[in-house]
Write a structure and sequence with these properties.
2 copies of one chain form a homodimer. Chain A is an alpha/beta fold and 374 residues long. Helices cover 43% and strands 24% of the residues of chain A. Chain A is built from 12 helices and 17 strands. In chain A, strands 6-5-4-7-10 form a 5-stranded mixed β-sheet. In chain A, strands 13-12-11-16-17 form a 5-stranded mixed β-sheet, sandwiched between helices. A 3-stranded antiparallel β-sheet of chain A has the order 1-3-2. In chain A, strand 2 and strand 3 form a beta hairpin. In chain A, helix 1 crosses helix 3 and helix 2 packs across helix 3. Chain A starts with 5 loop residues before the first helix and ends with a helix. Chains A and B meet through strand 12, strand 14 and helix 10 of A and strand 12, strand 14 and helix 10 of B. Chains A, B: Keywords: Plasmid.
């Protein structure tokens, strides 16, 4: 095959990504992606030759009137490890080319120095690989930003500074002899939402990932939106006024800041917070309403700026219950400048594993890109 | 010609837009837009057949080694009227296909009822057309949102409610027997910045338009970003805290709110405010610093969310001088979460005419689209 053009590469990846969401016929793909049938035919032939996709049984599409051959991803075409580097633990999984989870593994860091963290990541990766019947073809990471995803370097991760300036991709590609990529944790959480969660058939949405940092991934016309300096969606660094002083949102309502406040009324962790919300503990309810108002106000500004009106709340947000969710919703309803539908829902993908899962989906796309560029 | 495909239409418009910025050879266009030479050849041939573009003298590109034929837009291919509907006046111009301004006209509304406003717009349009040697082929408007640009209806314009639910495009296409389109005022100001101002060779930037409303147009990869409900960039509806209560930014620092404050120290309009800033009037300086901090803090949040780091400040911002600009810049420098270059500059396109100018550029693209779709 000749060197692929950048247009051809982009179209190829869009087709593979479409098949990551669902099996589809060539005609359906052409319609959905606004490509000619010739282009789709050429690209899918190439993918079939590579062994990445194959024809499935025929289906009958009543609009077209004749049976269509569905295309599907070949599960064993390749295997990818997805690793989520969180601030307290590492989460990992291995998936096949079609996204089925083959193995999972996680580990809390023993301490928070660089060596302890990197060794935990090695252990999880070793264990994932050792238990997988086939070798893996790539590793992809989700990690707190800022990071240089082009060169695979974690730069200056907020609230995780022991892991500053780590050339993660190189360390792992050297050790495991496979390609490795990194991406922002909130971005891969949004990618997970797109392939496994509530974002499956949506063109545009914002996925908010509330941990110690509060990030968001912006899916715009089916693609993750990247800024000019390797970050975007940094809602945790929205400026909000606290007693007349500007503070970052995540310094007031990041997971650590929330627990610092709840400890004052005897609640040490998010599981206990979840229980207290269910038991309608008055102080807890008031505090959760406050978080909902402040985070909700930032979401209003985000909706007004982006014009995107589907929002998923993930990470530790899933522990804050309906009190928080309803407070976010009523704040949006109160302040939306123009009356239209806004959908705000909690993610159902879990608070920590979602980063590993999203990283694996990102890795599948990056691996296909790598092969096509060869 | 066969019905154009949506891919073909998009590529055609991208090529025309490139020539709206500068004359370029087919090879340069292909490289810049990442299109094949065949595609560029077919599309430019079609434009030449339509009489929209023509070959200019040959130039020598040292990287390619042989003379390249430059393409340029044929100025008299069509004429478009651009009309800016502001809250106190209407501004208008006629431009040729290559964007040269042939006529200008403006008029303050006598009163603020619907009839007075629409008659002022008719007068300006009549006068523009009467004085133009050729007939015009289209009219495009920039107006305060929200609006339904697809159907040409002004819906619910903030601080301009006498002009609610006005089917502007239909009124003008009926009266003048030409196509008419409308677009958000801040969006067309950004379009003006792209074709006439500091955004000429930039891929992504945010153009802020400070009037009674504070809007912004987001240019993302060369295209204006539209939200799902016909708005985006609504920074005037960012929520900011004022004495513990959420307010919209534009209710605190829109042009009318600014003058309400300055009247308390005897300054009735923006010209006087500009003079007072130059004379270093202490109260004025303090107030301008306050505006710079509050608007600057919102800009910080916008940069963090979009990852876009080139910002132009237009509209009434151009009257607020270096005191305001420096306060915005130092606020950004203070709170940017990750150290990188940010460019913040005042627009040089003027505070009111920019809407008419941007509308005319928008109208040129819409007119070409209309002809291609025929």
């Amino acid at each position: 095959m000749n060197a692929i053009s950048s247009v051809g590469l982009r179209n190829s990846l869009r087709i593979f990504e479409t098949l990551m969401v669902k099996n589809a016929s060539r005609v359906e793909i052409a319609n959905e992606l606004d490509l000619t049938k010739t282009t789709v035919g050429e690209i899918t032939k190439n993918f079939i030759d590579l062994g990445f996709i194959r024809e499935k049984e025929k289906t009958h599409d009543s609009r077209i009137g004749k049976p269509q051959t569905l295309l599907e991803i070949v599960p064993d075409a390749f295997h990818v490890a997805g690793i989520g580097i969180l601030r307290k633990q590492v989460e990992g999984c291995i998936v096949d080319a079609d996204g089925k989870i083959l193995r999972r593994k996680s580990k809390y860091y023993k301490s928070f120095d660089y060596n302890s963290i990197i060794n935990s990541i090695f252990e999880v990766t070793d264990d994932l690989i050792a238990g997988n019947r086939d070798k893996i073809d790539a590793i992809a990471f989700g990690a707190p930003g800022t990071l240089d995803s082009k060169n695979g370097i974690i730069l200056k991760p907020a609230k995780f500074l022991e892991f500053e300036n780590v050339p993660l991709a190189k360390i792992f590609s050297d050790r495991y002899k496979v390609n490795a990529w990194i991406e922002n944790d909130a971005d891969v959480a949004a990618i997970a939402e797109k392939y496994y969660g509530k974002g499956k058939n949506l063109n545009s949405f914002i996925s908010i990932h509330m941990e110690e940092g509060i990030g968001s991934g912006i899916i715009l016309n089916g693609e993750i939106h990247h800024g000019e300096y390797g970050y975007a969606g940094e809602m945790g660094h929205f400026l909000v006024k606290d007693n007349g002083t500007f503070k970052y949102l995540e310094d007031l309502y990041g997971a650590d800041a929330i627990l610092e406040r709840t400890r004052m009324f005897g609640i040490p962790d998010f599981e206990s917070l979840k229980k207290a919300e269910k038991n309608k503990d008055k102080k807890v309810i008031e505090f959760l309403q406050e978080i909902g108002e402040e985070v909700g106000a930032v979401i209003v500004s985000m909706i007004h700026l982006t014009g995107i009106s589907t929002i998923f709340l993930g990470g530790k947000a899933t522990y804050l219950g309906n009190t928080f969710l309803n407070s976010v919703r009523s704040t949006i309803k109160k302040y939306l400048f123009y009356d239209h539908e806004v959908k705000v829902e909690l993610s159902t993908l879990g608070d920590a594993f979602v980063v590993a899962l999203g990283a694996s989906a990102h890795g599948r796309v990056k691996y296909v890109e790598k092969v096509l560029k060869k």
